[in-house]
Amino acid sequence: MAERIALRGVRVFDGTQLTEPRTIVFDETLSDDPAGARDIDATGATLLPGLIDAHVHLEGPEHLAALARWGVTTGLDMACWPPERVATLRAVTGSASLRTAGIPAIGPDGNHAKTLGLPPEAIVLTPDDARRFVEARVAEGVDYVKVVAEAPGDGGPPAEAVRAAADAAAEHGLDTVVHAATPGAYEVAVASGARFVTHVPLRGRIRPEDIAAMKAAGQIAIPTVTMMTGFPGVGDDPVRNVAALHEAGVNILAGTDAHVGGGPVVPHGESLHREFELLAEAGLSPVEILRAATIAPARAFGLTGRGEIRSGGRADLVLVEGDPTTDLTATRAIRAVWCGGVETRPEGQA
């Protein structure tokens, strides 16, 4: 059971700016009643909502713990199976928590079919396959659906199957996240009508007409610049693509593609702070970046009670030194982390 705590004299990031110093009370949830609380002097510190990484891959509780040590209290997983593993991770308490897509839908000959070892049921060839795939994920209790798009001819699901998956998910009240790592895949992802497009092209630029269509449709980008810039020989196209999305007014969420498998090393937790630096290079302000890892993903993914600090919300909190609204490096100066009111020792503290 979480201890009741009163943080005294702490500034709070309210989604737009820092408040004046105030007192924040919480146990498992945020409260207005300080009775029986242990006082902590937080003068000079800033309280952030628990950070949300909008694209991770989780295999065990140790990855949830790694997220929490870096202030990431919620991870949005984009490929986790079998269902028994998902159930084990959902049962973890006192650490970061997850939402997941379960198994992603893939084509028969794309990169994911060759490298991830996904079960045969992941392969989608037709709109009917897509609808059956979604029905199976709904039966498993996923939080959203993921589809891996490729450029036409590159072995991914046909464009009509990607759209059918997004439509079927919407019929069940679920959003769809579409993976797109090339300009051609972006065309497919945007045309699908899916709410989220994750990654930006490794090489090449997103077509201006696709960016305009994303903005018009209210689609949301999760660029994972940390992952995309980690490949050998990649230039500045990933950052420039994020800059173009941002300049057009497309909503951007902070996600890293943290994982322990193949490809560039993207460590759980720490990588989100690197993502902040890359988003800043793309032109996002510190406040926009903080929003992209707190209130924006919470609202976009329907994470009620997360992403902001208000009475009745879940006590996912990060206490940092300094002012991250003017200096993003302050997000690394973590003094304390609470996941559902349970304190987790930050990275670097003995």
Automatic annotation (TrEMBL):
InterPro entries: Amidohydro-rel, Metal-dep_hydrolase_composite, Metal_Hydrolase, Metallo-dep_Hydrolase
Boundaries of every Amidohydrolase-related domain copy: 46-341
Alphabetical UniProt keywords: Hydrolase
GO molecular function annotation: hydrolase activity, acting on carbon-nitrogen (but not peptide) bonds
Keyword Hydrolase part of the UniProt annotation: yes
The protein's name in its UniProt record: Imidazolonepropionase-like amidohydrolase
Organism: Amycolatopsis jiangsuensis
